[in-house]
Design brief:
The protein has 48 helices and 7 strands. It is mostly helical. Among the domains are: 193 residues, Rossmann fold; 49 residues, no CATH class; 94 residues, no CATH class; 69 residues; 78 residues; 73 residues, no CATH class; 55 residues, Winged helix-like DNA-binding domain superfamily/Winged helix DNA-binding domain (Arc Repressor Mutant, subunit A), CATH 1.10.10. The chain has a 5-stranded parallel β-sheet, with helices on both faces. A two-stranded antiparallel ribbon has the order 6-7. It is globular. The N and C termini lie far apart (92 Å).
Amino acid sequence: MADTRAPSTRLVGRTRELDQLLGLAGVTAPEARDVVLLGGDAGIGKTRLLRELGAAAREAGHRVMAGHCLDLGDSALPYQPFAEAFSGLSDAERDALAERFPALGPLLPRPSAAPGPGVERAELFASVVAALDSLAAERPVLLVIEDAHWADASTRHLIRYVLAQGFRGAVHVVVSYRADDLHRRHPLREALSEWVRLPRVRRVELEPLADADVADLARVRSTAELPAEGLRAVVQRAGGNAFFVEELLDAGLADHRSSLPETLSDLLLVRLERLDDGARRLVRAASVTDGREGFTALAAAAGLSDDELDDALVAAVDHKVLRRTGSDDYVFRHALLGEALRDDLLPGERRRIHAAFLAALPDDAPPATVARHALAAGQRETAFTATVRAAEAAGRVAGYDEAAQHYERALDLIDAAPGGTDEIDLVIDAANALVTSGQLMRALGLLRDHLAGLATDVHRDCHGRLLVAIGNTSYFANLDADAEQASVRATQVVPDEPTVLRGEVAALRARVLANRRRDREAAQWGEQALRIGEATRAEAVIFDAKATVTRLLARSGDGSHETMQAFRELIDASRASGHVLGELRGLNQMAFVHFNAGELDAAAETFDEERRRAARTGWSWGPYGFDGRFFGVLVAFMRGRWDEALELGAVRAGAPPEFDAYLTAVSLLVSAGRGDTAQIERTLPQRALWRHDQASAIHGTSALVELAGAGGDLAAARRHYDDLVELHTRSWDEPDFPARIRLVALLVGQYAGAVRTLDRAGQQLLVDQVPELLADVERAARTTQPLGPEGLAWQARAHAEVARLHWLAGSGPGAASSADLVAAWRAVREGFVGLGDPYETARSSARLAAVLVASGDDAEGAGLVAEARATAVGLGARPLLAELDRLSPRPVRADVDLTPREREVLQQVAAGRSNGEIGTRLFISTKTVSVHVSNILAKLGAAGRTEAAAIARRRGLLDD
């Protein structure tokens, strides 16, 4: 696309696709504002189609900007295609953009933009969009990003941001990718699934050419008349792939009798046999470039004289190996050819070429490029220094995924580091980059390995710094026992002196103790950290300590207004100083204050702010950044916005596997509400990862309890509960965690819903579990005092479900009167109404209605049923709808005509006796009792034994 020349041959077989692109890209339909994702196999014709589109757009007066993602493996430079797209502007245009949008500097070549201290990701992304809109004010802009399958994580994030924007001007975007490269774990595969759900995004897939079009293409491309036999051979071998057609023709393999090379690489390399020695040296050198070295460096690496170089270029272009992309630049005509050449290089040859490039690179060459050539050339010290610089450069533009890769590569080269290099600092920098990109367990493993390898006579600060890093990482990974151990060891290793490191230790200790609800000790360590932080002017320590102290203040319940003000001041100060972790932690803790107070809308707003700030700063998978999305899903579920919850939970582009599993866990609540029992098996592969995250384990288990109950497997429901208690006790040393209250309520609710389908023995097995489960509720409630509105609602719900179980079972010491049941369920319903949870309000209404109907209050019961049904229909809550169906008013025959024996049986049913017990008392068989019970239910219009007894009492059919 960088080639501004119009295609020299006519387009074959892609007229329909070109017309579609012309419309979507605003060339033939100026009002269009679509974004196009153009996919297809390698060589299928994407690039040629985009050249046609670019030529037509230029002819229509559009500005065409194009950039390519490059196959650089772990050496990818963040945002490469955007930098290339902006580099195609004139000097004056680039200078104007640099002046208007300083944050765009990293993407503009010098001298338009001078190097600065780095920019925040949000500013960079917003500046890209603003710059495109600015250019579109003059004339429509067509932005083309080619080969997105090679895009690094940061580039994918920026593409996603651009695709999601609603431009004010006529900005059209086309992103191409190789569909056949997208294996199951390819990061673009998940990104595409997210992008296609964005508004205005259209996906266009290029299919193989039809045989007739392949034949037509072969005729157009051939320099000589093809015999029919040769034409058939090309059609047969090309498989509808335009690139293969061209390669077969250019390699002279149209003859069907010639043997086709076993691999595509062999086929591609056939063309090089017709090049002379100079041209081969040139293209082999070009195969190891990343596109940023420049033509001068390429010429030097080829080792040719000026005359030889000119001849080599002519030969390479004539044989369609290279193509010209500018006044002084050449690239491979097909990327696959470059790949095949690179793989064909001998080891010694490869080292010599990289060394020549390294010697020819300018002083301001990208450090990632320098590092790649230095490492391949065997110059390890140069590679180390450049790799560290590349990591720092990636971090300055929030490319934390790339920064982590560079830091880890630098650690592999640590033996070549110059004297005075602090390996501990490098390890901690690598771990921080891994943590920020969401790879917490990898970061923890890295830190522990280096701590274990430290000699005992190394200065205590080395041990202390690693222990603090391990404690922080363990804390972020919800490994409370590990964080506790590391923080205690750090207090023993680091001297109790007013140093920054001691301040970090105190701040860590305060955080860990606060998490374990040892608030008095946490406050003491927090105050110590504040004193040291202020004395040493360590902002990070101050923000950390203030966040913990404010959290403790919020937990005490004193001065809620002052607490919120303190959180907002902390957030604003952290944001102003660029301390992302402090800002996100403040938002996270403020959101939970709202959440625990039952202020779900305020919590949702703050979690959303946290999620958006995390996305803008590159912390989407880092500490607290992910919480904004996770708990945003939870609050959306609680507020009855289930489709929104699923949408938030389905965004997995670039997510590490554990975060994908965590989102699945919380999204499973919607599946449980909708009765999708198939999800039980589908989530099985991911459940092992839930054990690393308390919230995921809790909410995933809550859903599994409901789904197991809906599937009729009450034993599995109880196992899920017991497994979670065991996990909490073993991993987090917290057997009486607050969520036990809700889990008991859900479990007993499933018991109560199934009890009338069981015989007396089965009912008793459920009733016998009640004392133990109620004890669990009360212990968790005492541990978590004071309970917030949600906790109080679930505590009331747990007791009401126990009473309902006894009521439906018809006996037991916990049995309550109808009046007590009505009062209990009214209180539960009011609790969830106050919380603003429509689903649990509807479920509580249904259970209150069941008691009211059984007590004779059909009018209020019917009103509650209608209200709950409207909510259930809106949510698609099938289990709740089924429960409501059982409560629908049934016609009661006016002329109830019970036989004397049926009246006797009914009397025993109302007393709660089983069929076997009734048979023994009346001296009839159990089977005969069953027949009588069925007749009684039919005559009374009752759904079950309990409802039949209630109807009989209302109609005076029972003896007092």
